[in-house]
Amino acid sequence: MDSHNLASAVPPPGGADDTQGRTVIAETAVAKVVGMAVRGVDGVHALGSGASRSIGAIREVVGATDLTQGVRVEVGESQVAVDIVLTAEYGYPLQTLANIVRAAIYSAVENLVGRDVIEVNIEITDVFIPAPDTEKPTSRARLADRFSTAAKPAGGQQGAVEPDAAAAEALPFQKVPAPPATGPTGPTQTGETP
Fold first, then answer.
1. Which CATH architecture group holds 5-9+22-131?
2. d(CA 143, CA 27)
3. pLDDT block averages, 10 residues each, the chain of length 194
4. Partner of 191 for a Cys bridge, out of 10, 138, 161, 180, CB 3.0 to 4.6 A?
């Protein structure tokens, strides 16, 4: 059974005489509240380990963001325990960042979920260091754009594909010259047929 789908019942305040029903809060719901609280803290670059962030990047491309990435919660009847894995941004003191993240989690869970937090364990696995502006590579055309530009047929020749100069410069490899054209008597020294 997936631990994110476990749920627990919260007894209503005031005892059994006030019972009008039972409230069940799933671990997935608590994990999402925690994930949103942590993502809102300045200095948190990303949640999750390297592998989970790679999978998360693929999910985001297709529009399916996982808000529980890097978050693990255990929900009891009236208490919650939280484990966080995150990457910090360079320039933020790590212990101070962990304390701010911890406070944000306590506040979010106690205010939005209505449970006491018994512990918050934080693992900072990496520090993100942005590339200096002077060393940023120039933006390159998207892969699909490069291939669609490179695959346009040359003027009048069926089946011939000749990328234009701009597309050739955007490709990550060197352009190989076309072989010399051959005619009925073979190629000339200039590559043209007689």
1. 2-Layer Sandwich (3.30)
2. 40
3. 50 58 92 96 90 56 74 94 96 97 97 96 95 64 57 51 47 49 55 53
4. 180
Type of residue numbered 112: L
Retrieve residue 160's tokens: 């011939």
Let me know: does 88 contact 43? Beta carbons within 8 Å.
yes
Q: What is the pLDDT of residue 191?
A: 53
d(CA 115, CA 117): 6
SS3 55: helix
The whole-number pLDDT of residue 168 equals 45
Beta bridge partners of 87: 46, 126
| Domain ranges within the chain, ordered by starting residue | 5-9+22-131, 137-175
If one counts every other C-beta atom within 10 angstroms of the C-beta of residue 3, the result is: 12
Q: Which residues of 17-34 are buried (b: 16+ CB within 10 A; e: fewer)?
A: eeeeeeeebebbbbbbbb
